[in-house]
């Protein structure tokens, strides 16, 4: 269990550092929205093959909750994963903050740490939806996107699937989710990924965090349920 928790900590740390780091250190002026999307997706691919054999590479509380709902892990194991993931995300965002602060033009108030948000974007703090999308738009996107993401994860990791391609499929799914959704919420589909930056940025990022915990968990729970009742499970599984 110690190895699994260490792997989940490192994996979530990496996802936040490089995914959010692409938005903060490179941003729209250098790599663009597609570049940020690929940074998140490639981080997942790398960790899937790096720590997947140890912990399954959930690196996302919503994924662990979906796996638990599907009946594939115990409650105690899920809670351990959630703690390791949240801690990894907070530390990853903290390291990103230290790196970004080395630039004299950087301000955590103005530039943030790639936090998620909804509603009209504040002109001073840049908190809120990147595209000024409403709470309802953000909630619908996060539930649906997380549902699809966890369906892919549970689908490609069932016994009848080809495990050698799982990391690629999962990573590419996260890429397309980001390409579509960055302007809506900045894309969470991962409560830990939202928690990490919010803890350091504070303000609306922390006040709006509830959505990026609740919506991904709902989407993941629905996906897990679909597999638990064998709606999306291959017969030979």
Concise structural overview:
The chain has helices at 2-30, 32-50, 52-55, 61-69, 75-100, 108-111, 135-156, 166-185, 191-201, 204-207, 209-228. By secondary structure, it is mainly alpha-helical. The chain starts with a helix and ends in a 9-residue tail after the last helix.
Describe this structure in words.
The chain has a single domain, classed as Up-down Bundle (Glycerol uptake facilitator protein). The model has no long low-confidence stretch (mean pLDDT 94). With 237 residues, the protein is an all-alpha fold. The chain has helices at 2-30, 32-50, 52-55, 61-69, 75-100, 108-111, 135-156, 166-185, 191-201, 204-207, 209-228. Helix 1 (2-30) packs parallel to helix 5 (75-100), helix 4 packs parallel to helix 11 and helix 7 (135-156) runs antiparallel to helix 8.
Task: Please render the helix and strand layout as text.
Layout: H1 2-30, H2 32-50, H3 52-55, H4 61-69, H5 75-100, H6 108-111, H7 135-156, H8 166-185, H9 191-201, H10 204-207, H11 209-228
Helix pairs in contact: 1-2, 1-5, 1-9, 2-8, 4-5, 4-7, 4-11, 5-9, 7-8, 7-11, 9-11
Largest sheet: none
Shape: globular
Q: What is the C-alpha radius of gyration, as a whole number of Å? A: 17 Å
Give the overall pLDDT as a whole number: 94
CATH architecture tag:
Up-down Bundle
Q: How many β-strand stretches?
A: 0
Distance between the termini: 26 Å
What attributes does this structure have?
237 residues; Glycerol uptake facilitator protein; 11 helices
């Amino acid at each position: 269990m110690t190895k699994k928790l260490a792997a989940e900590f490192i994996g979530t740390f990496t996802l936040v550092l490089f995914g959010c780091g692409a938005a903060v250190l490179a941003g729209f002026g250098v790599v663009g929205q597609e570049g940020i999307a690929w940074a998140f997706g490639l981080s997942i691919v790398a960790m899937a093959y790096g720590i997947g054999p140890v912990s399954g590479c959930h690196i996302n509380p919503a994924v662990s909750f979906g796996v638990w709902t599907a009946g594939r892990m115990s409650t105690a194991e899920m809670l351990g994963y959630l703690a390791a993931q949240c801690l990894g995300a907070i530390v990853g965002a903290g390291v990103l903050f230290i790196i970004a602060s080395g630039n004299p033009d950087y301000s955590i108030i103005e530039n943030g740490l790639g936090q998620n948000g909804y509603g009209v974007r504040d002109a001073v703090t840049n908190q809120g939806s990147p595209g000024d999308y409403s709470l309802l738009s953000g909630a619908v996107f996060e539930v649906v996107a997380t549902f699809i993401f966890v369906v892919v994860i549970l689908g490609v990791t069932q016994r009848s699937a080809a495990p050698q391609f799982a990391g690629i499929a999962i990573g590419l799914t996260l890429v397309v989710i980001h390409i579509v959704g960055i302007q809506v919420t900045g894309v969470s589909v991962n409560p830990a990924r939202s928690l990490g930056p919010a803890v350091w940025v504070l303000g609306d990022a922390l006040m709006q965090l509830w959505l990026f915990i609740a919506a991904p968990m709902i989407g993941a729970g629905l996906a897990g349920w679909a597999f638990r009742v064998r709606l999306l499970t291959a017969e030979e599984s």
